[in-house]
Amino acid sequence: MEKLTFSFKNTKPVQHPVHVGVVASGDLEVIFKPTTSKETTLHIVTGSDGFKEVWQNVLTRFFERYPLLADIEINDFGATPGVVNLRLTQAMEALNNEE
Amino acid sequence: MKNSFVELSGRDRAIALLDEGTERELVGPFDDMISPHLEPQGIVPESDDGVILMKGQLEHKNVLVISIESAFQGGGIGEVSGAKIVAALEQVLKDNQNGKTIYPIIILDTGGVRLQEANYGLLSISEIQNAVVAVKKYVPVIGLIPGRVGSFGGMSITSAILSYLIATKKARIGLNGPEVIEQEAGVREFDSSDKDLIWDTLGTKQRSATNIVDEVVEDSVEVMRDAVNQAISKKKDAKRTEDADFYLSLLDQLDMSKPLNTVDYRELYKNVKTVTHPITEAVATTEEKPKSRGRLWFEKLTGIKNAETNVSTVLQATVDGKAYVAIVPDPKNRFPRVREGEAGLQEGFAIANAVNKIIKDDVDKEVKRPIILVVDVPSQAYGYKEELIGIHVALASSAAAYAKARQSGHPVISFIPGDAVSGGFLAHGLQSNRLIALDDDSITIQAMSKASAARITQRTIAELEEATKHVPAMAYDIDNYEKLGALYQLVKGVSSWDANDQSVAKVKKIIDEAIDSAKNDANDLRFRYNTKIAKESGRVATIKMRQAVADQWSD
Prior knowledge:
The complex is a heterodimer.
Chain A: E1 2-8, E2 12-13, E3 18-21, E4 28-33, E5 40-46, H1 52-65, E6 68-69, E7 71-76, H2 81-98
Chain B: H1 10-17, E1 24-26, E2 51-58, E3 61-68, H2 79-97, E4 103-107, H3 118-135, E5 142-145, H4 154-161, E6 164-167, H5 178-185, H6 195-202, H7 204-209, E7 215-216, H8 221-233, H9 244-252, H10 262-270, H11 293-302, E8 314-319, E9 322-327, H12 345-361, E10 371-374, H13 384-389, H14 391-407, E11 412-416, E12 420-421, H15 422-427, E13 434-438, E14 445-446, H16 450-456, H17 461-470, H18 478-482, E15 489-491, H19 501-519, H20 527-530, H21 532-538, H22 540-553
Parallel strand pairs in B: 3-4, 4-5, 5-6, 6-7, 9-10, 10-11, 11-13, 12-14, 13-15
Antiparallel strand pairs in B: 1-2, 2-3, 8-9
Helix pairs in contact in B: 2-3, 2-22, 3-4, 3-14, 4-14, 5-16, 9-12, 12-14, 16-17
């Protein structure tokens, strides 16, 4: 298990908390919470050690397209980058649905 | 097109049962109530700890859905997830007591105790069982076993205590998983690689033919909703834990010299002629009996030498207005899997009969007889026949009887001079509102043996032992157990195998004090999280969860 923290200078504040996913084998849960901070901070707990760079790449690519400003928590149980991207996108869609 | 219920996540299952738009989740993912015990062991936690509470309406009736997410840690019950269930059921109880009808529905998809939080899991599960017994006096508690994991371990015992069980064909129910039986009793007892055998034995088809589940439904959201609604409206209640005489009669007619298969068992089940099975008071004999810590202390506390009843593994007697109950070994017992003092089929049902008789005898008495459980159970019985017949029903029968006794005003006290392990402890010990243990190195108190726990959690025994250093609930000794706060007293200076006169007098005095303490207190299990140790460290997460559920309960 490894704990990772990332921050991004994002611009689009989220208005509601959202939650998607389950901490199941090969899967993860993603929580977005509204923030008063100027930065998006991600706290990640992952069961797969040594993938910091991969996370950095997946997150950078996602936030370049969708610069969501939020406090984000991720609990990951060995999801592939594709699944991570899918859950982030679902969380974003859940945000849009509530607006 | 039908919508599968089984394929949904735990949260979506809860929502699917409710009338659209009525759902409100309590203590959900945004409340930061994760298990504090997983990260220290290198395990990723989940924001809801694998249990979802959803209040809402089902066909305009107020309901609470408790849904266990099996994809997270096999749906195992830990301190936080367990406290969540208990706290919610106690709110349901309070509402119903105050005339606000609300029906609880529990979706079971669980391996039982979360082994990484072992002793917390056992405590929580006994507390869930206590709450279910209490709620059933007001409304039925409906259980769903949709399948994926099914319902195993301590939560299978819980399932047997629920009012009515609805399952799909994708579910399995059993106490001990086949891998654990193979580990404990050998591959010839149960071959865990034989998937057909497992499904034939534990699958819904067999289980519905032998009343382990009450209704089998198609895997569809609509059908499931309708079945639950019918069960609630008709107040369906299988009274599964009140069938001890039937099962004891069945066991009399069972040939233990031959293997038993599912077809023969169904035949046997259909043809049982039920006769009553009262258990006799223990009497003194001249024949020396197999030694155990449980027997030693039962005999010393009651003064009955070489005690014997009509069930060789269960001792019970009322002496000086106090009833004592113990499970003891019998190396020649016809059930090989209980020869070392394990809690098996006969033990669970016989104790249920004994305790239910005590309740009945004292029903009109103002002062109810205290019941003292002498606890020395190395485990539940690990056997194929035990699973096929439904050992979880046996253990549920005694657990429910003890809970009922306590709730009707009997002080129920556990005195622990021996082992207190797993299903054996749930059946005989954990429904007590005061736990007294000897501070003795020989005592093992746990959810599963090291070998089995290592196998199931896919760790080495060395890794498991490392984890016990960080998480007291993982440990196997009584001193670490004390750190959880559940004990009324840890008795120093008395050893398990040395019941001398002075020690016996000391223990008797402490038991009497515990009885007085229980008499002047609530007849539930809250004592365990109100001790000084519990409040300061042992049950901090439990207390926090109880508060959170209480704060969010009202609409």
